[in-house]
Write a structure and sequence with these properties.
The protein is of the alpha+beta class. It contains 12 helices and 7 strands. It has a single domain, classed as 3-Layer(aba) Sandwich (Beta-lactamase). 45% of the residues lie in helices and 10% in strands. The strands form 2 sheets. The chain has a 5-stranded antiparallel β-sheet. The protein has a two-stranded antiparallel ribbon with strand order 3-4. Bound molecules: 6-diazenyl-5-OXO-L-norleucine. 6-diazenyl-5-OXO-L-norleucine (DON) binds next to loops. Homotetramer.
Length: 304
């Protein structure tokens, strides 16, 4: 039966469909090859109803939407205090790939920019060879299905990711990372290359909305005591140097990725996902931002 949510989703999809603004993320060569006009919207409720519009079964790489998930895994593995000793929770107002540390604390400003995300990857427990599998299983628990990796995107980023290597070595030189920084950077490249659909992303968001438990499988992806911290940094830092405009106009904790995905969470209620690969100057999906603004307005989701 067609519901009011289906109707609103279809209307927002139609209104955003013709927006061809933005460009593909060509700094990772393989991402410049993805079909630019793929578009889908998906909403999943905290009790497991899924609403879809467009090509919601197309797989794409999760990219930076991985950051809150690995941060959550680091919190679970090391505890909140040990993680806070390495990564702050302050918005940086900087681009995602800024080579920077807070000048006073000498820590990455937050886990959503690359410096904090590479540090979070370094904090995942286990031998280097086992850590990626722990991350993949963790993300799969959020999505409720076994997720894979795009080996071509991984190889492309591993070949060209000199800026992230520079960040890794900066972290090592300041003692934030204490092991080989190449391991942490490689793990970060791999986690970014995990593939999802917008349906997966909506269920991941719904899992966060449902206090860390996937509403369809009942599996716990993140203990409730860590969900609050993850959603807090998504709120203040998830959209990078566009986080202020996002929270004013959409009003939801969110995370974007240069694969064109956006995931947003209304705690206790719903998860939203959009996939559209053309990006704005901040590295956020153009239609993803537009669709989330429109959905937030139409469904009255702004949490303030
Ligand atoms: O660090 C990178 O370059 C990527 N693998 C991920 C960046 C990203 O998705 C930024 N977000 N919009």
């Amino acid at each position: 039966m067609r519901t009011v949510v289906d109707t609103i989703l279809a209307e927002v999809f139609e209104r955003c469909r013709d927006n061809r603004d933005g460009t593909l993320a060509d700094y990772i060569p393989e991402l410049a090859e993805v079909p630019p006009d793929t578009f889908s919207l998906c909403v999943a409720t905290a009790d497991g109803h899924v609403y879809e519009a467009g090509s919601s079964d197309v797989e794409f790489t999760i990219q930076s939407i991985s950051k809150p998930l690995t941060y959550g895994l680091a919190l679970a593995d090391r505890g909140a205090d040990a993680v806070a000793a390495k990564i702050d929770v302050e918005p940086s107002g900087e681009p995602f790939n800024e080579i920077s540390l807070d000048p006073v604390t000498e820590r990455p400003r937050n886990p959503m920019i690359n410096a904090g995300a590479i540090t979070a990857a370094s904090l995942v427990a286990g031998e280097p060879a086992d850590r990626f599998e722990r991350i993949r299983r963790c993300y799969s628990a959020y999505a409720g299905r076994d997720l894979g990796i795009d080996h071509d995107v991984y190889a492309s980023e591993a070949r060209t990711g000199h800026r992230n290597r520079a960040i890794g070595h900066m972290l090592r030189s300041f003692g934030i990372i204490t092991d080989d920084p190449e391991d942490a950077v490689d793990l970060y490249f791999r986690q970014c290359s995990i593939t999802v659909t917008s349906r997966d992303l909506a269920l991941m968001a719904a899992t966060l909305a449902n206090n860390g438990t996937n509403p369809l499988t009942g599996d716990c992806a993140l203990a409730p005591e860590h969900v609050e911290r993850v959603l807090s940094v998504m709120t203040s830092c998830g959209m990078y140097d566009a986080a202020g405009d996002w929270i004013a106009r959409v009003g939801l904790p969110a995370k974007s990725g240069v694969g064109g995905g956006v995931m947003a969470v209304l705690p206790g209620q719903i998860g939203i996902a959009v996939h559209s690969p053309r990006l704005d100057a901040h590295g956020n999906s153009v239609r993803g931002v537009q669709a989330c603004r429109e959905l937030s307005k139409a469904l009255e989701l702004h949490f303030l």
